[in-house]
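Posted in: Structural Biology > Protein-Ligand Complexes

Title: Requesting predicted complex, NAP in pocket

I'd be grateful if someone could produce the 3D structure tokens for the following input. Sequence and ligand are given below.
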Amino acid sequence: MEKITLPNGLTVSPVALGAMDFGTTTSKEAAFRVLDAYLDMGGNFVDTSNNYAHWNGTGDESETLLGEYFSQRKCRDRIVLATKVGFDRHGEGQGLKKEQIEYWIDESLRKLNTDYIDLYYAHTDDPTTPLEETMEAFHSLVQKGKVRCLGGSNYDTWRFCEANAVAKTPYTVMQQWFTYLHARADIAPQYTFNEATTRERLRYLESKQIPLVAYSCLAKGGYECPERLPKELIGGERLAFLKKMAADKGVNASALAVAWMVNLHRCEGFPRVIPLFGSSRAEHFTANLRGVELTLSDDELAQLNRA
Ligand SMILES: NC(=O)c1ccc[n+]([C@@H]2O[C@H](COP(=O)([O-])OP(=O)(O)OC[C@H]3O[C@@H](n4cnc5c(N)ncnc54)[C@H](OP(=O)(O)O)[C@@H]3O)[C@@H](O)[C@H]2O)c1
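-- Reply #1 --
Done. Output follows.
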């Protein structure tokens, strides 16, 4: 996998590995197999959070498992490590106040067995704390060397802009829900924070040269298993077209969705998109990774966009 250098200076593989379920619904052995496969294929961009996956455990599991992996494999220096702060974990952790950011960064560093985070995200907006306070707290982590770059996730675009307008160190990556299928406009998303990425958001990111890290980008397994397709997404003809082109190319539909996202920046008005996906099974994960090496002509890209 050929790496790309982002405008913020981070050099990453074109797809990121999501460790959300590692240590809870994905066993340590299975998670290590997926991590090994990702690193073997040239991947280096690993995503977690200080609260993964508290709905299935305590919220410490994913970071702790990664910390153990880095120590056992002695590979921390080969990883671009992203983690997050600001979401709830069993009634604690929600918010981006100075003291919360200062507390949770040290917790993350301890669990991850490291003394720096490459990319530290605000996991979601905190409208109750002044943006100045949040951005000053993040800036001070960068000055102390605990964090290299900042990102924002689950922000409204206008709030992301306002945060950057008051920041000494701005958010240089956005993480948001994005996939090949369009979201239905007639039902509200299951969670109010995770609005699907709109064209307006994509144009904003493109104009500011801010990459989009696309989460839940494999439709929760819905490209392969129809029963897993989130009800917020429209399958229909667009899904049928993706499946047909994937079959013609000899890959699964998830891999073609990955290829579409990796190549989307070639089209006018689209930013660099980095698909972020996870799996409990190395064979699923490596099949999906085939999308990175897939060649898509301009015409095929246009057909996928139009479908
Ligand atoms: N910023 C945020 O608020 C936010 C929110 C959600 C997620 N995330 C990040 O994004 C990452 C990925 O998100 P996600 O887990 O929600 O969604 P996802 O990557 O779209 O879907 C993961 C699911 O897809 C299934 N899958 C993948 N390949 C498959 C295949 N070939 N056949 C059948 N099933 C397949 C996996 O099942 P198997 O295990 O059976 O392969 C897994 O259950 C997370 O790990 C996390 O790092 C961030």
